[in-house]
Amino acid sequence: MRQPALARDRFVTDDTTTLMAEEVRASLLAPVPFLPSKYFYDDRGSRLFERITRTEEYYQTRTEEALLRSCAANVVARVRPQELVELGGGVSPKVRLLLDAMRQARILRRCVLFDIHRGSLESSLNQLAREYPGLAARGIVGDFQQDVTALGTGERRLIAFLGGTIGNLHPDDEVPPFLRRLRRQMTGADGLLLGVDLVKDTARLERAYNDEAGITAEFNLNLLQVLNDRLGADFDLRAFEHVAFYDEGRAWIEMRVRSRERQEVRIPAVGLSLRFDAGDELRTEISCKYTRESLERRLQGTGLALRAWFTDPERLFGLALLGPDDTPPA
User: Fold this and answer.
1) Looking at domain 60-200+291-324, does it have CATH number 3.40.50.150?
2) What DSSP state is assigned to residue 199?
3) Of 31, 53, 151, 314, which residue has the fewest beta carbons closer than 10 angstroms?
4) CATH code 3.40.50.150 region(s) in the chain
């Protein structure tokens, strides 16, 4: 893809799209242009991802859920939290396992849901009200990377960051700063439960992002439709195809969209035009894979330390229970 060009036309954005426009513009003007993966999750994107989690190839969700079923009581016994804070996943079966373990221990008092998508957040809060009567619940609409300070500090909290979502952050440039910001919202009694996808056979990893039914391809291309809908772009989804591969040197899956032909795409709200030749690619997501050792390296200087490590018999997925160490974050 050639360097984005300034577009002549203007596009008037409302308050809900201004930040998105700024972020998309900055990402497209980066040395290696990309699109922010957090914008995958509009209503259609969320439904497509739910379908992905049920494919045979996508092992992550079912493996993490089984792992939580076996260790949730252990995690709760170690932290003794009165409040569960969930970052970005809503009231999933995995979150219910933690809530139920806290309720079983008779310590569940509060729940905080943090989500960038207001509609999903409202739906999740309604589910909580129905399924956990008397639970004090609140929601925060925001980007967990930028707005995590909105959490403030609490009292005996377990923060759950599940689904391998940490893998979507650059392991060196973004993960340590994010963990430092999160640590500043934690007291010495809090815990952070982090779900991490593990390094494994390349073929198995690539199958998970190239399912035979093509649902991940639909999900990937839907990001272009989100830009059309929210930023007035004119991507022709038929002119692009899905690409996903494992970069062994970086230990991450990289998803891209590849242009099928020579074309120009205008994004008025961003003030840019993108010029593609046939075969040009634009990165839409990374999904970093970890080992226990590589995760612990990223904890250095964050003020967090590994307290417990859980994994499944095949070592496909890991749950890391982190807690504040004696060193404040750098």
Assistant:
1) yes
2) P
3) 31
4) 60-200+291-324
Task: Dump pLDDT digits (tens) for 197-236.
Answer: 999 999 999 999 999 999 999 999 999 999 999 999 999 9
Strand, coil or helix: 168: helix
Burial environment of residue 6 by CB neighbours within 10 A (0 to 12, 13 to 18, 19 or more): exposed
Strand pairing report for 272-276 and 252-259? unpaired
Q: Is 56 exposed, middle or buried (0-12, 13-18, 19+ CB in 10 A)?
A: exposed
Cβ atoms of 279 and 34 within 8 Å: the answer is no
Alpha helices in 56-192 (DSSP H): 60-79, 93-104, 118-131, 144-147, 175-183
Task: Pull the structure tokens for residue 225.
Answer: 């439709």
Q: How far apart are CA 171 and CA 239, in angstroms?
A: 32
The alpha carbon of 84 is separated from its chain's Cα centroid by a whole number of angstroms, namely 18
> Mapping DSSP to helix (H, G, I), strand (E, B) and coil, where does residue 30 land?
coil
Judge whether 136 and 111 are in contact, CB under 8 Å: yes
Buried b / exposed e across 61-82, counting CB within 10 Å, b at 16+? bbbbbebbeebbbebbeebebb
What is the rounded CA–CA span in Å between residue 322 and residue 309?
9
